[in-house]
Write a structure and sequence with these properties.
Blueprint lengths: L1 H25 L17 H8 L5 H25 L5 H25 L3 H25 L6 H20 L2
Length: 167
């Protein structure tokens, strides 16, 4: 169990460092509606689908976080339908629940203009999605939640990107 916490901490640290470096390189690139806010996102088509033409990074990020919360709730329901006695599914449900907590906190961070805490909480959510996938990978079993887990990881990555545009 302690190894899992060290791994999660390492992932959060790595993601936070990445966000800080990305935000430094992005600068003030998108202040007007003339540009595609998702042009430098890791998953551009997904970003464009989620933000639906929004041009204000703060508004776009809020929308993206809300969409990720919806997907996380959906993933928990899917995990419940796969059975309650599977230890790997239990890891996923706990991870998705932790991600929901981090996402709700990130909305508060966004509202309070606490950019550092925002990035930490978004990184934590991303780490939680990775934890679910890792549980199945380490077991040698296929992840029955692999598609939605991958989607949420991509969405969380895009949220981190959008947070780098918020000033």
């Amino acid at each position: 169990m302690a190894i899992k916490h060290y791994t999660s901490f390492s992932l959060v640290f790595l993601a936070t460092t990445t966000v800080l470096l990305v935000s430094h390189t992005h600068g003030h690139g998108l202040r007007t509606g003339k540009h595609d806010i998702c042009q430098k996102a890791d998953f551009k088509p997904l970003c464009r689908t989620v933000v639906k033409g929004l041009t204000d990074p703060r508004v776009a990020l809020r929308s993206a976080i809300h969409q990720l919360i919806i997907q996380s709730r959906r993933a928990i329901r899917l995990a419940d339908m796969h059975g309650k006695s599977d230890q790997y599914m239990d890891v996923c449900k706990e991870s998705f629940d932790d991600a929901l907590t981090s996402l709700r906190t990130s909305l508060k961070n966004l509202k309070n203009h606490d950019r550092a805490s925002l990035n930490i909480n978004l990184s934590a959510a991303l780490s939680d999605y990775v934890t679910c996938d890792d549980a199945f990978s380490e077991s040698g079993m296929g992840n029955p939640l692999g598609k939605i887990d991958a989607l949420m990881s991509r969405m969380a990555s895009n949220c981190l990107y959008l947070s780098s545009l918020v000033h």
